Amino acid sequence: MSLFAGCFERVAATEPPASQTALPSASFINKVWKVGEPSSIPPGMLYIFLSEGTLVMASPNSRPAFGKWKSEGGTLTTMIEEGIPYKVNVVKLSDDEFKITLINPGKPTELTLVPAE
Fold it and tell me: 31 or 25: whose pLDDT is higher?
């Protein structure tokens, strides 16, 4: 017999809000990615997509820059750099490669990202 059996109220488990639901196993979020080849952007630049929507971009030759990113259904849809939103097409997402196309006003930018070591 438990002395505390009637002292605690049972609380039903609730589902997390939609913004906190699980993402697919291969995720680009909270990883440090570096630009690989082939890409329209010089190799070595770093990208970090933080879970709350901040985008961190760092280059060996300049100060870090901050932007934002948005997703729908766990898929990256928009990157915002210097206040300018760019639509994104995800070409490939795996644990060892994240390939996207940024839809710019001019020619689209191909970006191949690999995990930074």
Answer: 31
